[in-house]
Design a protein that fits this description.
Number of helices: 3
Low-confidence stretches: none
Strand order of the largest sheet: 3-2-1-28
Strand content: 35-45%
Mean pLDDT: 94
Distance between the termini: 10 Å
Structural class: mainly beta
Shape: globular
Radius of gyration: 20 Å
C-alpha cells in the first residue's frame, strides 16, 4: 500500500485516520467530536472526507472535512437528547456551547448508518431506514421519497439493530443505477436515479425453494431479507453482485433480480462483511462468524478470511498472521475494505479495536493498529 493512502475508520468514539509512514502506521484521531461514527468515506483527489453517525444522545449528522481530516464541520440532521437537555437548562447549554437550531429532519432519524457516492450525488442511509441525498457535497440533504413511499414500506421489519439502511452500492459507469440493503427488508434497486425502486430478493431457484425454520433464512422463494452487506463486482455485463446476509453468502449475475446460494464450503452461514476484487469479478472475500446466537466470533475461536477465486464454487481459508487461539472478536458489516493495488490490499477492523492488513490479497496478514474503540467501519481513501 502506498504511503499516500489513508485508511478511514469509524468507531464508537469518533473517526480515526490511519496512514502508512514508511516504517509503520500513524493513528490520527479521534475526530468528529467523539460521536459514534458508523461509516467514513473519502475522495483522495479533493481530500474531502465524510463521516456519518450519531445516536439517541447526539442526534444524526454527517461530518465533513475538506482538508484531509485537519478540520471538520457538522451537518446536523436530527435532534438528540442533548438538544432537549440544553433547551431546558441554560447552564448546561452554556457549558457545551449549544445554540438553538432546527435540524431538517427533526426527530425522524437517530443515526446515519451508511454513506455512498454516485457521480456528483452523496447518499446517506439512516435509522430508521430512509435514503437521503445531497448534491452540494453533504451540506444540505433531502429524502429520496420514492424509496420512503415504496409500496412494501409498511411491511419492513427491523433487524436486531433496528430498521436500518446500511448498504449503498453504486455503478461507477451509470449514475442512474443504485442498490441498497435494508435490515430486514432486503435489497432494493433503482435504474432511474431514485425515481422508482424495485425489490430484488428472489432466489434463482425460487420454484424449488423449500421452507427454512430460521426467520432470516430463505423462504417463499426469497433469500431472506436481513442482508448484512452487499457489493458490486467490477465491470462485466449483467451487474454481478455479492451479498452476505444473516443466513449465507449469495451471488447475483443479473443485478439482484435473482440470487444463487454460494455458501457451500464455508464454515458457517453467518457473517457481516464481504469484499470483491477490484478487477476480478470471480474473486471475493468473507469473514465468517460462528453464528447469530453462538457468540458471533470466528468458528473455533480461530480467525480466518475466506476467499473464492471462482465466483463462490470453492472457498479457501486464509489464516497466516491472524490469531488462531482464543480469538473472540467480531468484524461488523462495514468493517472490511479493499484497495485497487496490484496485488489487491485488504483491511478489516474488529470490535476489540484492532485493524489487520494484507498486501497480497489475503495470503498473509499483519495487525497495524490496536486498542482503538469498537470499530464500526473501515474504508481506504486512494
Amino acid at each position: 500500500m502506498a504511503a499516500d493512502r489513508t485508511m478511514l475508520v469509524g468507531t464508537t468514539k469518533g473517526a480515526f485516520l490511519i496512514r502508512e509512514n514508511g516504517e509503520g502506521w500513524d493513528v490520527d484521531g479521534p475526530h468528529c467530536g467523539g460521536w459514534s461514527i458508523n461509516h467514513v468515506i473519502g475522495d483522495a483527489q479533493s481530500g474531502t472526507i465524510w463521516a456519518g453517525g450519531g445516536g439517541d444522545w447526539s442526534g444524526a449528522g454527517v461530518w465533513r472535512s475538506d482538508d484531509g481530516g485537519a478540520t471538520w464541520q457538522l451537518a446536523k440532521l436530527s435532534k438528540g437528547q442533548i438538544d432537549d437537555w440544553a433547551a431546558n437548562d441554560a447552564g448546561f447549554a452554556q457549558m457545551i456551547g449549544w445554540e438553538p437550531s432546527e435540524p431538517p429532519f427533526g426527530s425522524e432519524i437517530s443515526q446515519i448508518w451508511s454513506l455512498g457516492r454516485s457521480g456528483n450525488t452523496l447518499y446517506a442511509g439512516t435509522k430508521p431506514a430512509t435514503l437521503l441525498a445531497s448534491r452540494d457535497g453533504g451540506k444540505t440533504w433531502n429524502k429520496v421519497e420514492a424509496l420512503t413511499d415504496h409500496p412494501s414500506a409498511d411491511s419492513w421489519n427491523p433487524g436486531a439493530a433496528g430498521l436500518v439502511l446500511h448498504t449503498i452500492v453504486a455503478d461507477p459507469a451509470d449514475t442512474q443505477k443504485l442498490w441498497i440493503g435494508i435490515s430486514a427488508a432486503g435489497v432494493f434497486a433503482t435504474e432511474d436515479g431514485g425515481a422508482s425502486w424495485e425489490r430484488r430478493n428472489r432466489l434463482s431457484n425460487a420454484e424449488a425453494c423449500g421452507h427454512h425454520d430460521h426467520p432470516a433464512a430463505p423462504k417463499d422463494g426469497e433469500t431472506g431479507r436481513c442482508v448484512h452487506n452487499m457489493l458490486r463486482a467490477p465491470g462485466g455485463a449483467g451487474d454481478v453482485l455479492y451479498q452476505q446476509n444473516h443466513h449465507g453468502v449469495w451471488r447475483s449475475a443479473d443485478g439482484g433480480r435473482s440470487w444463487d446460494d454460494i455458501t457451500a464450503g464455508l464454515p458457517s452461514t453467518f457473517g457481516f462483511p464481504i469484499r470483491v476484487h477490484p478487477r476480478d469479478p470471480e474473486t471475493a472475500w468473507v469473514l465468517p462468524l460462528n453464528g447469530d446466537s453462538a457468540g458471533r466470533y470466528p468458528p473455533d475461536a480461530a480467525a480466518a478470511v475466506w476467499r473464492t477465486r471462482d465466483g463462490g464454487q470453492n472457498w479457501e481459508a486464509l489464516r497466516n498472521g491472524l490469531p488462531q487461539k482464543a480469538c473472540f472478536f467480531t468484524v461488523l458489516r462495514q468493517a472490511m475494505a479493499g484497495d485497487t493495488a496490484d496485488p489487491a490490499g485488504l483491511y478489516f477492523g474488529t470490535n476489540t479495536g484492532s485493524v489487520f492488513a494484507s498486501h497480497d490479497e489475503g495470503d498473509t496478514w499483519a495487525e497495524i493498529a490496536r486498542h482503538l474503540p469498537t470499530i464500526l467501519s473501515v474504508e481506504v481513501m486512494e
